[in-house]
Write a structure and sequence with these properties.
With 206 residues, this protein is an all-alpha fold. It contains eight helices and two strands, in the order αααααααββα. It has a two-stranded antiparallel ribbon with strand order 1-2.
Length: 206
């Protein structure tokens, strides 16, 4: 088993270096392609910050929307093609971080893309290379479902509940309330199913 895992890691590293080499020669988005490969490499460590920051820059509002679309497509392709749980989870982490820390316009683009290409629906994903990989595969699928539900919640609510700020309901008010807390009863009833489903997916990730 140890020899197999060593060979698999070496093969993963070779695949990553090959992709980087091809990007340097053939890609019109060389820097972005390299950043995505390195941020979602087969190495069992979190994505390196400098690579994630390059992806943030590529998905910022001042970039051409075609460039942002290319980034989304590349991350989607990386997720759909891999059978390695480390690559899959690092890709999901990168997507999650862009949603939380990246440009707000990225959410709109990602929602539009995810409605057309259900790239987060990876219910058949599995890495059966080891017992650990098998167990982690289930969590990868659950994490992807949570991110998909987060996008759906954003589409329905028209704001990101994870990033909403407390605001005062009136200038004379001393108590700050969240945007969700300021909804009317009818609005809350309309949005409650999406909020409940998001909470359910979050609990499943524990």
């Amino acid at each position: 088993m140890g020899t197999f895992q060593t060979l698999r890691k070496a093969y993963g590293a070779l695949k990553d270096s090959t992709k980087v080499g091809l990007a340097k020669v053939n890609s019109d988005y060389k820097e972005l392609d390299i950043a995505i490969v390195k941020a979602t490499s087969h190495v069992e460590y979190p994505p390196k910050e400098r690579h994630v920051r390059k992806i943030f820059y590529a998905t910022s509002a001042h970039q051409p929307r075609a460039d942002v679309a290319y980034c989304i497509h590349t991350l989607s392709k990386r997720l759909s093609k891999t059978r390695n749980w480390i690559v899959a989870i690092k890709t999901l982490i990168v997507i999650h971080r862009i949603l939380r820390e990246g440009d707000p316009s990225f959410k709109e683009d990602l929602v539009t893309y995810s409605r057309r290409v259900r790239f987060l629906q990876i219910t058949n994903f599995k890495d059966d290379s080891s017992p650990l990989a098998w167990d982690c595969s289930a969590w990868v699928r659950t994490y992807a479902q949570f991110l998909e539900e987060r996008l759906e919640c954003f589409r329905i609510l028209k704001y990101d509940i994870d990033l909403e700020h407390l605001t005062k309901s009136s200038p004379n008010s001393t108590k700050a309330r969240s945007k969700t807390g300021m909804l009317t009863s009818d609005e809350l009833l309309e949005q409650l199913p999406a909020l409940q489903q998001l909470l359910y997916r979050l609990i499943c990730c524990q």
